[in-house]
Amino acid sequence: MAATDIDVKYVAHLARIGLTPDEEATMSARLAGILGYIEKLKELDVTGVEPTAHAVPMVNVLRPDVVCPSLPHEAALANAPAQANGLFLVPKIVE
Amino acid sequence: MPNALSLNQLSISELTGRLARREISAREITQACLDQIARVDGTVHAFISHNPADALAQADAADRELAAGVTIAQKPLLGIPIAIKDVLAVKDHPLNCGSKILGKFVSPYDATVIEKMRAAGAVIFGRLNMDEFAMGSSTETSAFGITRNPWDPARIPGGSSGGSAAAVAADEAIATLGTDTGGSIRQPAALCGCVGLKPTYGRVSRYGLTAFASSLDQIGPFTKNIEDSARVLGVISGLDPKDSTSVDVPVPDYVAALDGNIRGLKLGVPKEYLIGGLDPEVKASVDAAIQQYLALGAEIVDISLPHTDYAVATYYIVATAEASANLARFDGIRYGQRVDGADPLELYTRTRGAGFGAEVKRRIILGTYVLSSGYYDAYYLRAQKVRTLIRNDFLAAFKQVDAIITPTTPTAAFKIGEKSGDPLQMYLSDIFTISCNLAGISGISLPCGFTTNPKLPIGLQLLGQPFGEATLLKLAHAYEQSTPWHREKPGTLA
Amino acid sequence: MEYEAVIGLETHVQLNTKSKMWCGCANAYGAAPNTQVCPVCLGLPGVLPVPNEEALRKTILTGYLLNCEIPRFAKFDRKNYFYPDAPKNYQLTQYDKPSTANGFVEFEFQGGLSRVRITRAHLEEDVGKSFHFDRNSGVDFNRAGVPLMEIVSEPDITSADMAYEYLNALKDILLYGGVSDCDMEKGMVRCDVNVSVRPVGSTGLGAKIEIKNMNSFSGVRRALEYEIPRQIEVVKKGGKLIQSTRRWDDTTGITEEMRTKEHAHDYRYFPEPDMMPLAPTEEWLADVRKLVVELPLARKQRFIREYALPAADAETFKNDVALGNYFEPLAKQSANPKALANWVINNLRAKLTETNEREKTEQAELGIEPADLQLTTLADLKFPPAALLELVALVEAKTISSAAAQQVFAEMYATGQAPAAIVQEKGLAQVSDTGAIEKLCDEAIAASPGPVADYRAGKAAALNALKGYVMKLSKGKANPALAGDILERKLKA
Ligand SMILES: [Zn+2]
After folding, report:
1. How confident is the model at residue C262, as a pLDDT?
2. Fold (CATH) for C434-492
């Protein structure tokens, strides 16, 4: 699949980013250039190479099951764009 | 006093000495920084905001502790004003990440590095400008205006931690904290002529650092010299139970390591870093630095990092993929600048459409794309494998050498607007710094000269073994002490 | 053509840890909205998750209880989707490397044993809770970040009833393991149901239809009782089913389509960079294995086998673990465990229930919240367990009649006094002295001309009335069998 085939409208929807038609057009062009450049990774043979997810690999980093204080209620809601009755208000969720 | 440096121009080492001798007060130091901000920040614009009253109150508290006999040994940063990149959470301070989308967000908690610096007595102040969500190499993508290079206000300070570098270069703070995902500490440090250290991944807790790319981000100091870098690193390092990726490696006395004795240490010069776009003046300065190291008794070894050419592409897959998820939380539901909608979907797309700038949108969409159904293996998984190859290059090199020496950037600071129209060119300017983050190793940039016309700082990059910061700092310190570059100050800023 | 259903279940279970999955906020139900939240579980900028070891332990323990393999490598992944109740807009879950895999659950169904294979039980996090108002919704994040285990079954279930029994068996196992409180009312167990139909005898799978977010087992059964015939109907009429997600409406009793495959999510899973993989050590796993308990079904079978209990009694002890645990050590010492079980179930449990009901009423009148009720448990009984054994022995030895035993039990339950002492004090010892009983029988015959006439006229049952009279005269102490013998002899004379 050619890198320029990116469906910006669809991907922007997945990312929940509203784009104007102008933005969409610029985005397509710019991303095509970047994706074209990224294609160079296909030159490499990565057969048998393990992926690196962490630069410093460790395992079993866990915390004990201990309760710590939560935020004071006012602090929890202090940054809420809309709130009522201790809840974060959002437009009606329909599904 | 003619030619005497004012307090804001001094280093941590100098100031703590004078504080201990009670020659000066913490309040005077903080006031000197605030005065300098008032004088030059209209031009430089390193700060998005700062709260003088809060800073002075902390300085007064430090003075009270000094009066009560608290020593620098107990609190190594007591009374030192340190300014903070706008990506780190400081309790009761605004946190915007250089973006509109966070609106009036005020952090209800301290990042671990902030807790550690408070415990060490530092005066934590100011919000330093940055590329939006640390995505950029010039601080031009900030929603709070551009930051200018103190050496030439027509030029960028580098990025993404441009404010952090400019504030130190312009003596608006004694030291600052920044973050480095692909060079965001080292590159602006190089372009502004200060010292910038990116610790090994896991050396410093990321708790409270608004994530751009979780597997690449690290917090590090900007300082006026190497000794200060060692001091701040000693304070902010160490295992943090709040960060699963922080590593339980003992924190050595980094300052004690600065003994000047680098005889016999091996420095590798990677042949892949002699690229076409390398500015001749930059190359000449780095070559001179290599000669200086030879003179200091170090050995120079030619090495190869064969997968260097793939680092930028790998980085832009890994970093954008992680960012696409990390930045999903900025949705206008629990905090931030909401643009309302008829339903949650409309609220999200409007909020995020209006709140994010073009570069951030571009990277989120790229990251979303490379993870989307059908592309994961071709992009993300492949990039993770290439990342292994890049990391292995470095681990192999470190079997031969103690550190790697390179330019930090291919050129000195470029002009404002020069590359903002071409993201790919901007990305490629990070060519020397990006591999370090992919490999998770340590890196530092320090001044190694100037271009002639105009006079702009040139940065030398040293890359060290994982958790090899002590050796890295020792090497950097030996060079610094044998050269005049770190003592140079930018001309008068009006 | 005959059709059959193919059903798989995804069961989400909240683990009963003290703290949440990634942060130290309390994992407790019922607090005021957004009072058990912190920067981590609110998804504020800069926070990082650190996994709760106890949640992992409970997941692995569940794996053992469900006969799963425990992979030596597991990891967390990000599942990306936007929803107002998801603080990070991605859920941390285990995508392709779960902590347990390939197990099975065995349970009784339709008089036999059924087995449903378990694909995996993996660890993830719960989301916040939404409340819906006229024009907007409100979100409480107290539940966000509560450890959630998802147990995925293979499509081995073939009917609504079987799904129901599977879920109950699963719940019993989780309760036994102590990994979840499984309180359905509190939403601690929720199910997604995957159901398709196919012609009997075919092995292919029909279009998979998912019914989301069911919060009761009876709801699952009812939804399937609706959905399976619906699908068969569609297919029989020549229609085509497409892969889709449906919602169950509990009030109308029907399922409705929510979205079809074209609108399916693209979750963009990728390994969580903020957390390290899991590679449980042999030593750590050995410690978890020490927590493995006997499974409910095994316990029931063992109770039937070892104590010769009727299935119903063994079922009672399976379901009421505390009662079973009370019973078992006594049963080992008892000559007649079956009689003992009868006492434990029909007397002790009944009495305790009665006490608890009274306590609830009293405490409710005092304004005590349901969650704070102080109820008597088996551990609070005034008499030692051995007293029950003694009581049964007294009955077995015919020292007291079963009627008297009831009195003794009531007394020991109320006071904690030893049975023998009660028998002595109240003079409840059964009279087996023939002379004394003969006298009482004579009295009974004299006082009951009606029953006597009836008996002599051939109504054998009339003897019971006379026997009852003798018992009454003896205040319950007469040996009823002996009284019967004597009466019979006298009346036939
Ligand atoms: Zn929390």
Report:
1. 64
2. Arc Repressor Mutant, subunit A (1.10.10)
Q: Which chains touch B (3 or more CB pairs under 8 A)?
A: A, C
Tell me if residue B214 is catalytic.
no
Per-residue model confidence as pLDDT tens digits over B176-206: 999 999 999 999 999 999 999 999 999 999 9
- Which residues neighbour B459 within 8 Å (Cβ) at sequence distance 6 or greater? B186, B187, B189, B190, B191, B193, B407, B408, B409, B445, B446, B447, B448
At C231-254, the pLDDT tens digits run 999 999 988 898 999 999 988 999
Residue A16 DSSP symbol: T
Nearest CB partner across the interface for A19, out of B310, B353, B391: B353
Contact C46 B207 (CB under 8 A): yes
Domain ranges of chain A: 8-42
Please state whether beta strands B457-464 and A87-91 pair in parallel, antiparallel, or not at all (unpaired): unpaired
Contact C231, C160 (CB under 8 A): no
Which C residues 69-88 touch B at CB under 8 Å? 78, 80, 82-84, 87-88
Q: Do B241 and C46 touch (CB under 8 A)?
A: no
What residue of A is the nearest CA neighbor of C41? A70
Q: Does C279 touch chain A (CB under 8 A)?
A: yes
Q: Which residues of B touch C87 (CB under 8 A)?
A: 329, 334
Q: What is the ipTM, given to two decimal places?
A: 0.97
3-state DSSP helix/strand/coil percent for chain A, to nearest 5?
40, 10, 50
Number of continuous H segments (helices) and E segments (strands) in chain A: 3, 2
Which residues of chain B are within 8 Å of residue A63 when distances are taken between CB atoms?
A: 241
State whether residue C110 sits within 8 Å of chain B by CB: no
Architecture of domain B7-306+390-487 in this structure: Alpha-Beta Complex (3.90)
Residue holding tokens 């470029």?
A: B414
Residues of each domain in chain C carrying CATH 1.10.10.410: 434-492
